[in-house]
Design brief:
This protein has 225 residues and is an alpha/beta fold. It has 7 helices and 9 strands. The protein is elongated, with a radius of gyration of 19 Å. It binds guanosine-5'-diphosphate and magnesium ion (MG). The site of guanosine-5'-diphosphate has 21 residues, from helix 2.
């Protein structure tokens, strides 16, 4: 009898988990050719293309990510054609995003200088609690490297990026650190938007006053994730 009851409770919890879907939008920002579309293609489809097609306007992909044991985050990852002529689309592109990955290309110094512009555009158009993560791309091209990860350390601090010690160096060609970059983004989003109920251990939105699993009062019964 107890076993049946336990199964029923577990079933109900799984139902609740599925029902309270954690859906977030992540946007990528950075100049044309820094490697935005390639990073998304590697993360979502595990592919790399030396001749990646230009992104026309705006595109997006969806990917589910398991975090915090069995919890599923449903991520919509938005890709932006970095050309000037598409910049008018940027406000609506960033609208509602939980995280922005801001990319610079380690083989082109000017893309690091451009980071400030992208940070400003994100800050001007995004929700206040958007998290920013700085990403250094194309780290496989060691011979052509013009910027070291160290050079960009200061920028992370300056722009208030999540865990501001250094940008994440990635290669979409080899896959190095690509998953890590999106995991960082997921972790940052969860930190910014979710809280853990110390009564039942579940996580739920920070904006809620009570835990939507057990009904505990969020003011006294929660801990930071
Ligand atoms: N070697 C190398 N090439 C890359 C990497 N990421 C992107 N590229 C190349 O850089 C070019 C621009 O990439 P793309 O993703 O289209 O940049 P976007 O304009 O920011 O979307 C393409 O030719 C890609 O194949 C990388 O990690 N390593
Ligand atoms: Mg592109």
């Amino acid at each position: 009898m107890n076993l049946i009851l336990l199964n029923l409770i577990e079933g109900y919890e799984n139902f609740l988990r599925a029902f309270i879907m954690l859906k977030y939008k992540i946007v990528l920002a950075g100049a044309k050719n820094v490697g935005k579309s390639s990073l998304i293609a590697r993360f979502c489809d595990n592919v790399f293309n030396e001749e990646m097609m230009d992104t026309i306007g705006v595109a997006f992909k969806r990917k589910k990510m398991i975090v915090d044991e069995n919890r599923e985050l449903d991520l919509t990852i938005w890709d932006f054609g970095g050309e000037e002529k598409y910049r008018f689309l940027f406000p609506s592109y960033v609208n509602g995003a939980a995280a922005a990955l801001i990319l610079f290309d380690t083989t082109r110094k000017e893309t690091l200088e451009d980071v400030e512009n992208w940070v400003n555009i994100v800050d001007e158009n995004a929700d206040e609690n958007i998290v920013k993560i700085l990403i250094a791309t194309k780290i496989d091209l060691k011979e052509e490297r013009q910027i070291s990860i160290e050079d960009a350390k200061e920028l992370c601090k300056k722009y208030g990026c999540y865990e501001s010690d250094a940008p994440i160096g990635t290669s979409s060609k080899t896959g190095e650190n690509v998953e890590k970059a999106f995991r960082k983004a997921a972790e940052a989003i969860m930190n910014a938007r979710l809280q853990r109920c110390s009564n039942c251990g579940e996580i739920f939105a920070k904006k809620l006053k009570i835990c939507n699993y057990c009904g505990a009062d969020a003011e006294i019964k929660t801990v930071q994730i």
